[in-house]
Amino acid sequence: MPFTIEEVRADKRYLELLSEKFPTINSVSTEIINLQAIMSLPKGTEHFLSDIHGEANAFNHVLRNASGQIRRKVIDIFGMAMRDSDKRELCSLIYYPEEKLELVKRQQNPEDLDDWYRMTIHQLVELARFVNHKYTRSKLQKLLDPEFAYVITELLNEAKAEPDRQDYYNAIINSVVEVGRSEALIISICYLIHRLIIDTLHIVGDIFDRGPGAWQIMDTLTRYHNFDIQWGNHDIEWMGAAAGNLALIASVLRVSIRYANVETLEEGYGINLLPLANLAMEVYGDDPCTPWQTKDFDNNPRLKRSAQLMAKMHKAISIIQFKLEGQIIRRHPEYQMDDRLMLDKIDPRAGTITLDGKVYELLDKNLPSLLNVSDPYQLCTREQEVMDQLAHSFRNSAELQKHLRLLYQKGSLYLVRNGNLLFHAAIPMNPDGTFEDVEIDGQTYRGRALFDKIDQMIRDAYFPSGGDKHHQDALDYMLYLWCGPKSPLFNKDKMTTFERYFIDDQELYKEKKGAFFELANTKEVCQSILREFGLDKNSSHIINGHVPVRTNRGESPIRAEGIRLVIDGGFSKPYHATTGISGYTLIFNSHGLQLVEHEHFESREKAIVEGVDVHSHVQLEDFKYNRIHVRDTDRGKELQLQIDDLQRLLMAYRHGIIKEK
Predict the structure, then answer these.
(1) Mean pLDDT per segment of 10 residues, for the chain of length 661 residues?
(2) What is the 3-state secondary structure (H, E, C) of 262-325?
(3) Is the model's pTM score more than 0.90?
């Protein structure tokens, strides 16, 4: 891009600051050459996952096998030269290097072990070199384990060297084996392959939910090299709880207890459930709590021995949740959620509830905390004490707060990246396809402006700004995002949790979805959404999840003539019967898009011992005629701006506007 001397002079103050980093003509020229070279590289591979729902083992395996990409690379490189069983063993090693090495040492003849190390290092280096072709040497250095940075760099550079350099290459490997560092080097190369094969990981919502390992997923992400998160409704539920919203603390506890999933609470975050257990026994000690039995003990069989206590805790925290939700709904009439105020419609002595003039018999009539009270939404003294203790646990859990900060640091309500619009669930829309008006803080927002406002509200709920009232309003709004009708993370007319617990009437359980869920299956509406977010309607995509794709009923994840891709394939075990599969990964590499469908994950143990892998099948290939390079990406646009600035600095040096240092 040509620049005039006048433009360069106008930018002199900025260019002087830039000259601190590039003080000479040579340094500027070198950086321009470097950046222009990077622009010519193939774009890095992006992986998109959604709706993990706490299923840590399946998530970690898909991450380790790069959604089947590592196995495909092994087949491409070694082909017929390697037996299928050996390919499985090599893949298993790459996925789980520490555990696999321990198994190999037990199985291998000790006299043959050093030869196995040499052969394996050769194979891993060849694979690492193959997947490293998209990266500059400087980026590779940032991904390397510092302990083996020199060794791995030399091996990668010499892997295809001339025959007279082969002795040097072999000497490096022999030296590593002789000094007893083979295993450490193998582990280091395996993890390098993980980092090289996935350049960027996008998680399109719902890390948390009923699965037992949400905290383990978050722990994995704390060490992951490059990722972002688009918040889902279950993430918001946990974020609101960790920020101090008492209703969402109760909701998190209720869901966890209902599905016998307390590992994340107790083991992951050290949340003390004893106060709740004591309250439950005090209030419901003689109550069998039959309607409140935990649904599924598969996640945690040991809890089955405490089934009665779990049922009592389930009931106690549910009643507390309905009270606390009612308090927030009454504080905010603008939410228009008065139909969710149920407790004041109950006649606790008669054991009935009156809704829209119709009287229903309650499934559970033992409601002592609603007897003889002037306000059914007010917590009794013991309930308040328990919630204060639980809130203290949530606020003071170092691990939970660390993960919450990561969700804020790496997360957002939506993301626009490389021609793709990512958000978890929905955009509030009118039946005619226009964007619906939503009131927040007395003002009306729609479309992208609504998403930007909500993103700010979510941040204000954790990082107080604008005064105590605004902070409390933002914290309350986290409940609306969880279950409010115009929330882009929920977008149904109501959440019928209360009805499902207390009333035997299937009609009352229905939750009507917002207009988006049907309209977004049409090309025209998706194109209008893309335009709203500043994207090309003809070449861009919408990527979201939230609603499981029921492939066993013939549903397709590809909607709106290929513009919208719904990648919720049911990572979590309870959804397998609904979807018929175990999740999707959308892969966007330099050739284009691939949508990969995963079969069920058996276990980490079988993957290590037997080489059992998650089999994945390509459902969509949208490859481009021309390969996509860095210059074609958002990163390329950023690099071009840097090049333009450096070109102006170079002109300033050459015309004496700024002196070299």
Answers:
(1) 84 93 96 93 94 91 90 90 90 93 88 92 93 85 89 79 74 90 95 94 93 92 95 97 97 93 90 96 92 72 76 96 98 96 95 95 95 94 97 96 96 97 97 96 96 97 81 96 97 96 95 96 97 95 92 88 90 76 86 84 76 69 79 95 95 93 86
(2) CHHHHHHCCCCCHHHHHHHHHHHCCCCCHHHCCCCCCCCHHHHHHHHHHHHHHHHHHHHHHHHH
(3) yes
- 329: tokens are 């709904």
Residues 578 and 60: beta-carbon distance below 8 Å: no
Token pair listed for 512? 């009507």
Residue written as token pair 């939410």: 335
C-alpha radius of gyration, the chain, whole number: 28
Instruction: Taking each helix axis as running N to C, give the angle between helix 468-483 and helix 447-462, from 0 to 180 degrees, rounded to the nearest 10.
Output: 120
Q: What share of the chain is helix, strand, coil (3-state, %, to 5)?
A: 55, 10, 30
- Relative to beta strand 200-203, strand 358-361 is unpaired
CB of 105 within 8 A of CB of 97?
no
* Residue 567 CA from chain centroid, whole number: 12
Placement of tokens 């978890």 in the chain: 424
How far apart, in whole angstroms, are the C-alpha atoms of residue 134 and residue 234? 36
pLDDT digits (tens, 9 = 90+) for 411-444: 999 999 999 999 999 999 999 999 999 999 999 9
- With contact defined as beta carbons under 8 Å apart, do 115 and 108 qualify? no
Q: Do 481 and 490 touch, CB atoms closer than 8 A?
A: yes
Q: Are 104 and 116 in contact (CB under 8 A)?
A: yes
Distance CA 208, CA 236 (A): 9
User: What sign results for the dihedral spanned by CA atoms 609, 611, 617, 622?
Assistant: positive
Q: How far apart are CA 617 and CA 60, in angstroms?
A: 18
Q: Which residues contact 171 (CB under 8 A, 6 or more apart)?
A: none
Amino acid found at 135: Y
